[in-house]
Amino acid sequence: MDDNLDHDVADLWSTLFDIVTDGEKRLAIHFESHQLTPPQFYVLKTLSENSGECRIGDIARDHHLTSATMTGLVKRLEAMDPPLVRRRRNQSDGRSVDVILTAAGENRFVAVQQGLMDQLRAVFGILPDAERRDIIAKVRQYFSVFSQQFPLERL
Questions:
Q1: Rounded distance, CA 109 to CA 88, Å?
Q2: Contact criterion met (CB below 8 Å) for 43 and 51
Q3: Does residue 21 contact residue 39 with C-beta atoms inside 8 Å?
Q4: How far apart are CA 101 and CA 98, in angstroms?
Q5: pLDDT tens digits for 2-56?
Q6: What is the pLDDT of residues 85-98, one digit of tens each?
Q7: Each residue of 93-105: b (16+ CB within 10 Å) or e?
Q8: Pick from 17, 42, 64, 89: most CB atoms within 10 A?
Q9: What kind of fold does domain 36-124 have according to CATH?
Q10: How far does CA 53 lie from the centroid of its chain?
C-alpha cells in the first residue's frame, strides 16, 4: 500500500469537502442578499443559458426535481415584485408550460453573477498571473481525469 498516495487522497478529499461546504454556505448567503434561494438562482441560470426561455419540465429534469416542485419554484419567482419569470402555454404543445425570464429576472441573475465574479476577481487578483493559470490548469486536469474515470452515467 502506498502511504503517500493514501495521505494525498485523504488530504485532497478533505480540501475538496471544505471547498464545497464553504462554497455552498457562501453561495447561500450571497443568493439571500439578492432575495433568492439557491434553487431559484439555478432556475434563473438555466433560463439565461437557454436564451431566456425553457419548458418547465426540462428545467425540472435538468435539476433532478419533479415538475410539481419546479412549478412551485417558478410560481414563487413569478410572484416576486417585480416578477423574475413569467409562464405561458407552449405554442407547439399546449400541454407544456414555458418559463420566460423577464428583464427583472435577467437583471437579478446578472447582479448575482457579477457579485460572484467580483469575489473571484478579488482573490485571484492577489496571485501572480502564472500562479492563476497554474491553478486553473491543475483544476481542469483533475476534473478531466476524474470525469473520464467516473462518468456520471456510471454513478
A1: 21
A2: no
A3: no
A4: 10
A5: 889 999 999 999 999 999 999 999 999 999 999 999 999 999 999 999 999 999 9
A6: 999 998 887 788 99
A7: eeeebbbebbeeb
A8: 42
A9: Arc Repressor Mutant, subunit A (1.10.10)
A10: 17
CA distance 118 to 115: 5
Beta-carbon contacts of residue 78 (< 8 Å; ≥ 6 apart): 84, 85, 86, 87
Separation between Cα atoms, residue 68 and residue 66, nearest integer Å: 5
Q: Is 66 helix (H, G, I), strand (E, B) or coil?
A: coil
The secondary structure of residue 81, as a DSSP letter, is S
The answer to whether the CB of 64 falls within 8 A of the CB of 57 is no
pLDDT tens by residue, 72-122: 999 999 999 999 999 999 888 778 899 999 999 999 999 999 999 999 999
CA distances from 4 to 8, 50, 70, 74, 153 (A): 6, 45, 46, 49, 31
Q: Which three cell numbers stand for residue 55?
A: 419548458
